[in-house]
Sequence to fold (1524 residues):
Amino acid sequence: MTTEPVEAFRARLSEFLTGHGPGPRPRDPDERFAWTRAWQATLFDHGFAGPGWPEAYGGMDLPFAHQVAYQEELARARVPGPVGTGLGIAAPTIIKFGTDEQKRRWLPSMLRGDRVWAQGYSEPGAGSDLPGLRTTARREGPDYVVTGQKVWTSHAARADVFFTLVRTGAVADRQRGISYLIIDAHAPGVEVRPLRDLTGGHVFAEVFFDGVRVPVADRVGEENGGWPLVRTSLGHERAAGAMNQAALYRRVLTELEELLRERGALADPLVADRVAGFEIGVRIMRYNAQRTISDILAHGEPGPASSISRLHITAFEQELHEFAVDALGPAGLLGRNSPGAVQRARWLTGFLRTRASTIGAGTAEIQLNTIAEQVLGLPHEPGMPAAG
Amino acid sequence: MTTEPVEAFRARLSEFLTGHGPGPRPRDPDERFAWTRAWQATLFDHGFAGPGWPEAYGGMDLPFAHQVAYQEELARARVPGPVGTGLGIAAPTIIKFGTDEQKRRWLPSMLRGDRVWAQGYSEPGAGSDLPGLRTTARREGPDYVVTGQKVWTSHAARADVFFTLVRTGAVADRQRGISYLIIDAHAPGVEVRPLRDLTGGHVFAEVFFDGVRVPVADRVGEENGGWPLVRTSLGHERAAGAMNQAALYRRVLTELEELLRERGALADPLVADRVAGFEIGVRIMRYNAQRTISDILAHGEPGPASSISRLHITAFEQELHEFAVDALGPAGLLGRNSPGAVQRARWLTGFLRTRASTIGAGTAEIQLNTIAEQVLGLPHEPGMPAAG
Amino acid sequence: MSLSVSDEQEELRALVRKFLGDKASSGAVRQSVESSGGYDREGWPQLAGQLGLAALAIPEADGGAGAGPVELGVVLEEMGRALYSGPYFGTVVLAGQALTHVGDETARRRWLPAIAEGTLTATLAVTEDNGRWDVAPETVAEHDRGEWTLRGVKTYVVDGHSADLLLVPARFADGVGLFAVEATASGLTRTELDTLDATRPLAKIELAGTPATRVGDGDASGPLEHVRDLVRAAVAAEQVGGAARCLEMAVGYAKTREQFGRPIGSFQAIKHKCARLHVEIECARSAARFAGSVAGQPGTEAAVAASVARAHCSEVFTHAAKENIQIHGGIGYTWEHDAHLYLRRAKSSELLFGSPREERRRLNRLLEMTGPNR
Amino acid sequence: MSLSVSDEQEELRALVRKFLGDKASSGAVRQSVESSGGYDREGWPQLAGQLGLAALAIPEADGGAGAGPVELGVVLEEMGRALYSGPYFGTVVLAGQALTHVGDETARRRWLPAIAEGTLTATLAVTEDNGRWDVAPETVAEHDRGEWTLRGVKTYVVDGHSADLLLVPARFADGVGLFAVEATASGLTRTELDTLDATRPLAKIELAGTPATRVGDGDASGPLEHVRDLVRAAVAAEQVGGAARCLEMAVGYAKTREQFGRPIGSFQAIKHKCARLHVEIECARSAARFAGSVAGQPGTEAAVAASVARAHCSEVFTHAAKENIQIHGGIGYTWEHDAHLYLRRAKSSELLFGSPREERRRLNRLLEMTGPNR
Fold:
C-alpha cells in the first residue's frame, strides 16, 4: 500500500484528470461506448484504475481514505464510470474467491475495459426468486454443458463475458444447488437477443445458452457453492462509491434547480417546498455515505447506514425525475426529437428509466424483506425461504 | 310500506325535527349520554325511528328513497345518532336471523334506546383474527355457561346487553365452531372494566365472563352457525347511512376551513392546496355514497362503491385531523383545559381518536386483504384462512 | 341523479369494448405508436360511422344522437382501457363539444353533421407555449374587410397534425372568440411533436395571418369554460378506464406468476398494492361519473365536479400505471410489454388539460377558498 | 469529520441508558404525566449532578465538561428513547447554550456553574402568541435609570412553570437583547399549559414590567440564531431516539404477538412497514449526527444541516409513532400502553421549535432558492 499522504495523492490525481480528460460525451450510443472504454484504458495505463484492487492485477491497492478521495475527484471531474457490471459485481467475488490463475486471467483485461463483463443472474421464471433459477450446467468431462435462459443482463449486447449463476444440483436444493460460472459470450451456443426497455433503448437483453461448453476451470468457488458468493462485494470500495452517487445527484439536483429557476417555476411555493424536500434527500444521501465511511474508518465495518442507502437512493431518483416532469408541465412531455424539448428530454427519459430502480437487482419489496429479516430479525413467512 | 311521496315525507320529518330538536349538546359525558337516549326515545315515540326496520318492531319500513331522505334530513338537523352499536350491527342480524320471539323481545327496546347494546366480538388474543376467538360457551341444560374475555367493546360500560361471538365448538374448527349469543350485561358473572383509550377518555372496555349462564333461547341462528351472521347488515340502510357520514365530514371540513381562514392560515398556498385535497376527498365520500344508493335503486345491490367507502373515510378522517393540528402550529397542541385552546381542542382530540379508525372493527390491513381476495380474487396466503 | 350505469349504457359499453378489442388491440395501438403521423385510418370510419360513436354526443338537430356527457364517458372509459389512438378525442370530445356549445347556426350546420357522420376530423387548439390549458389566449384575431386572420402559436394540440378542421380560440378587441381554420388554409404550419405518449398525437400549430372563420358571436370565454369542463369530465372517464385496465393487468399477472413457489398475488405486499389501487379507482369512478352526470348544466357545480374528478383521476391513473409496472417486475420494464404504454398515457393525460395542482388551485378559486390570484 | 460513534460516546450512551432505565422507566414517566406541575425532582439532582450530564456541554471555563453538540446529541437520543421529562431540555439545551453563546462574562459566571452543578434550573422563552419559533420577539425591554424591565407574553415555554431562571429575548431600540428573569421577580405570571405532551411541560409567561438583567451586549439576533441551530440539532437527536424506540417496540411486539397462528411480524404488511421505518430512521440518524457534528461552528453549513435534520427527523418520528400504534392494534390504542406517549411527544416536538414546513422554507432561504419573503 502507498505511503503517499491523501492530499498529495488527491493533487496528483486531480492534475492527471485535468490533463487527460476523456473529452466531450458523444451522443451516439456506439461512439459513447467506445469513448467510455477508451477512458477506462487511459485510467488503467496511467495507474489510476481499481482503487481498491490488489496491485498484482493492475489495481492501486489504496488505503480506504485514499479510495474516498479517488471517488470524490472522479465525481468532481465528471468522467464516465466503468462499462459493464464486472468491476462492481464480479471482480469482488473473483478477488475474494477466485484462484490466482483465474485472477491473472480475468482481472486485468476487465479493469482495462478490454473485455466487457455482464451479469447473468435473473431468469424469466425467477426474477426476484434467484434461488429458484433453472439454467442447468451438466458436468461432462472437463466441461460444464450449460443450457437455459437469462434476462435483465445490462450491457449483454456488448458483453464479452457473462458471470452467471447456474444450477449444478437439483432444483429442490434451491440455493444449495447453484454454482458461480464465468461464460465466454462468444462461445458457440450463446445467443444474445437485445431487449428494448420501456424507454425504447436497448440496455438489457435476453441471453440463451444452448449446450454451451464451459471449462470447469471457469467456475469460481466450489460446485454447488455459488450462492454465498453472490453477496460478496468489496464493501469498502462500494462505500466510497456511494459518495460518488451522492455527488452525482447533488449535481443533477442543482441542474434541475437552475432549470426551474430559469422557467420561473420556483416561484410556486409548492414547487419550492418539494425542491427543499429534495435538498434534504440529497444531503441525507451524502450523510449516509459519509457515515458508512466513518464507520469503516472507525470500526472496520460499514455499519447500518450502508444497508439502507439503496432504498433511499432509488426512491429519491424516481421521485426527483417525476417531479421534474410534473414541474415542467406539458413541456415535460416532449421527446428529444421535438422542437421545444427541454434539455434533450433528460427528465422525461429519467422518469421512465428510473422505473427500473425498484425492480432491477432485487425489487424494492425483496429488499424490504431482507431488511426486515436480516436487520430487524423479524420472522420469515412460513413456507418461504429466508430472505437473502 | 308507506305510499307517502318522498317529498311529502321529507317535509313532515323536517317539520318534526324543527319542532322537537334535542336541544344543545351537553358537555358532561353522563349528561350527554342521557340526552342522546332521550332523543332516541323521542324519535321512537313519534314514529321516526328505524327507517328500514319492520313496523312490527317499532320501525318505519320505509322504501329506500325515503330512507335516503331520512338520513339527509337527520344530518341536516345535526341531531345525535343512536347510542351503542346495537342498531347498526346487531339489529340487522336479528331482523334477518332471529326468531319472531327474539325480535319482539329485543328490538323495540333497543330501538327506543331503553336498552343499550354493545358489541363483544374481539378478544385480547384475537384482535384481527376473529376466527381464532376463545371465549367458550358450554351447554348445560337450558343454558350456555360462558367464560372468557372480550375487549374493544365500545360503550361497554353503559351497556345493558352484549351481542357476542362465542366458541361452542373446538378451537381448531375456527369459524365453524362459533355461535352468536346475546348476553345480559347485568347477569351474574359479567364484569366490565372500563379501559382508557389513548385520548384519556373511556369509550371502550374489557368485559370478563366468568361462568355466566345464558339461556339457549338467546342464541341467534344455529349452534356453531354464528360466523356467517357476522357479516349481515341491512346493506341498504347502511348505504343511506353513508350519506350521513359524508354530510358530517362536509360540515367538519367547512368548520376547519372557517377556522383556518380566521387564523390566516389559508393564505399559505401549501395549506390551501391540502384543503383543496380534502375538498376532493369529502366530495368523493358523498359520490361514493350516492353511487351506492343509485346502484341499489337501479339494481337492488349496493355495488362496488360500498366496499371501499370505509377505507376512504378512515384515511380521510385521520389525515384531516392531523392536518388541522399541523396547520394550527403550536396552538394545535393545546389541550381543552389550556388558555388559548383552539375550539376546545377538538382537532387534537380527533387526531388521537382517529388512530382507532384503522384499527377498530378490523384493521386497515385486514380490510385490504378482504378486498384483495373477495373483490379482486387474488389467492390467499398459504396456511392462512381465507379473508372474511 | 343516478350514478349507476343503466342497461342501455352497459350495452353501449359492451359494444365499444368489443369493437376496440377487435380493431384496436394492443397490436394495433403499437402500430400507431411505432408509425408516426398517421392514425387508425381503417378503424375510424367504422367506429365513427357504422358504430355511430362520433354522432353520440352531438345534438339531434345537428345530425347527432343527442346523448349526454354520461354516455360519452362510457365510450371514453372504454377508449382509455384500450388506449385508443384514433381521432375520436380531438374530433368528438374537443371539437364536437366546442362547436355544439359555442357555434352559431351556420357553423353547426356546416360542420357538426360531417363530424357526426365520421367524415370530418377536427380538433380544438387551446394551449399555447406556456403550456396552460386554462388561461386566455395570446393568439390574436384580426378583422379586415370582412375577413378574419389569425396570428399566434398553439401547441400540444391533440390530433393537430391530422385534423381536417382546427378550432382556435383567439383574442381580439371585444374579448375572446372561437375561429375555424381549414387544414388547407394558407399561413398554417403544423408540426407533429415527439412526445411521451404516441397514442395521443400532439402537434404545434403556427398561424401566420391564417384566414379563419369566426364561430359564434359575443365573448366566447364563458362557453369555452363550459367546454373545458365537459372535456375535463371526458378525460376523467378515460383515465378511469386506463387505471382500471392497469389494475386488471396487474391482478391477472399476480394470479398466475409464481415466485418462491406460489403466485405473487398471495403475498401481502402485492395484495395490498392492488387493494389500495382498487379503492382509489372506485373513488375515481365515482368522481368521474358524478362529473359526467352534472357536466351538461354549465355552472359552478359542473365546474367543481369536473376539477375534483380531474385532480383525483389523474393521480390515480398515474399511480396505477406505476404500480402495474412494479408488480410486473422485469417484464413490465420491457418495451414489448404494454405496461409502459399506460404509464405514458397516464402521465400525458395528467399534465395536459390541467394538472392536478392546477385543478386544485382552480377548485379553491371556485369555492372562494382563496383569493383570485392564488 | 467522523459521523461514527466513538467508544467514549458509546460509554456515555450506555451510562445514560442505564440511568434512565432505572430512574425514568415508563412508570416514572407516567407519574410525571399524570401529576401536573412537578418534574422528576428525585432523579434530576442525580442525573445532573452525580452523572454530570448537566455540565456536559458547558465550557470548562464555566464549570462544565466542555463537550460539544455531538455528545449532547448522544444524551438527548437516550432521553428521547426514554421520554425523559425532567428539566434537562430547558436547563441544558435551551438556557445552557443560550448563556454560553450570548452571555457576557458576568452572566456566565453567575449562572453557568450552577447549571453545570445541577442546582439551578432554567429555560429560554422564545415563542410568543403567534407560535413561531424563528421570528423577532414582540416582547419589549425598557431601560430606565439603569434598570431593565420587560413587557410582553411568551408561551409554549419548555419547563417555563418550574425553571428558576428564565432567559427572555426581547426587543429594544438597538435590536434584540437577551434578558434574565428570576422566578421570583415581580410582575411575572407563569401558567402551566395543558398540552398534548405532558412529558414536555410548557408554560405561558406573562411579563408586566418585570425586572430583568441584560445578558450579553450588542444585538443578540445572530448568536440567538446560532443557539436555535444548536437546539435544532439537539431536538433532532432526541427525535431519532424516540423514533428508534418506537420501531423497537413495534418489532418486539410483532415478533411475539401471534394472529392466524403465526407471529404478525411474519406478514409482509408488517415487515415492510418496519423495514421502511428502519430506512427512514437510519437516514434520520445520519442527518442528526451530521447536524450535531457541524453545529459547533456558526454559519450556513450548520444552519442548513440543522434544518435538514429537523425537517426529516420530525416527520420520521411522527411516522414511527403512528405505525407503532397501528402495529400494536387494539392494545396500542389504550391509555395503559406507552405507544401514545411517543405519538404525543412526536407531534409536539414536530410542531415546537419549527415545523417541517417552516424548516423547509428556511432551507430555501438559506440556499437562496427563493426570495426572502417566501
Q: What stands out?
A: The two ends of chain C are 33 Å apart (CA to CA).
